[in-house]
Amino acid sequence: MRASPVAPGPWPLDPPPLRGRKLRVAVLGVLAEQKGAQTVITVAEHADPATIELHLIGYPEKDLPASAEDRIVVSGEYDDADLPGLLARVKPHLVWFPAPWPETYSYTLSAAIEAGLPVVATRIGSFVERLAGRPLSWLVDPRAPVEEW
Fold this sequence. Notes:
Elements: E1 23-31, H1 37-46, E2 52-60, H2 66-69, E3 72-74, H3 83-90, E4 94-97, H4 107-114, E5 119-122, H5 126-131, E6 137-140
């Protein structure tokens, strides 16, 4: 399935309430090195599981290390058409795109935008252009240390 470009606005926003709950963070698709696997694993290993819940809506390209395995909820492989329903089921407070290499386009970013969810992404590639001016969207240096993420 080829996703169409996201319209430049107005932006639909429908984040779930956070007050008094764990921050649910979703990473979408195949968790591979070029998509930020090491960053996700490092954050999972260092984050307080009492305050942050990491969801991989997709699957890891390689087995997760034991130190992160119990800290990341993995949904498994999915069909593109099922992604909106999976996002609705997980109800993430934000969707995280930690890719250390530039993306030319991201259909999963389109899904997050269309779901009205806040986004945190690296400040490289198509994320910069596609998230320009969008509320509840943050861009982070791809070399940011785990504390910044």
